[in-house]
Each structure stands twice: as structure tokens, then as C-alpha cells.
Amino acid sequence: MTARQSLAPYAALCGFVLLLAALFGVAYAAGSAAGPVSPGLHRSGGGPGSDGGSGGGMDGMPGMGH
């Protein structure tokens, strides 16, 4: 077995990691350039469990007792 054959899996792994990092960078740049998806959308209350918002529940669904 030569040194070239023993390094082949590591070279493939490094290539895959570099490709993954490049794709992540491109996706992040595209998302930053696009801006927010819904600029007018804001939270109506505090954080989770603060009971400051509507809770996102669907009142009136049959079989869902409180």
C-alpha cells in the first residue's frame, strides 16, 4: 500500500468538509442579501412561557380540553 492510497480517504473527507463550508457560506450570503422574509412580523409578547401573547392556541377545536 502506498502513501497516496492511505491518504485518499482523508483527502476526500477534507474535500467534502470544504465543499460543505463553501455551500454554507453561499447560502448565508444569499440569505443576508435577501433580508428578512416578513419585515412587518414582530413578536406580540415576551419570551416563551411569559403569557404575554396569544399563545398560538386554536380555541374551539373539538376534543382538545384545557
UniProtKB/TrEMBL annotation:
Q: What is the superkingdom listed in this entry's lineage?
A: Bacteria
Residues spanning the signal sequence: 1-29
Q: Where is the composition biased (Gly residues)?
A: 43-66
Arranged from A to Z, the UniProt key words for this protein are: Signal
- Where in this protein does the record put region Disordered? 38-66
Name of the protein: Uncharacterized protein
Q: Which organism is it from?
A: Streptomyces luteireticuli
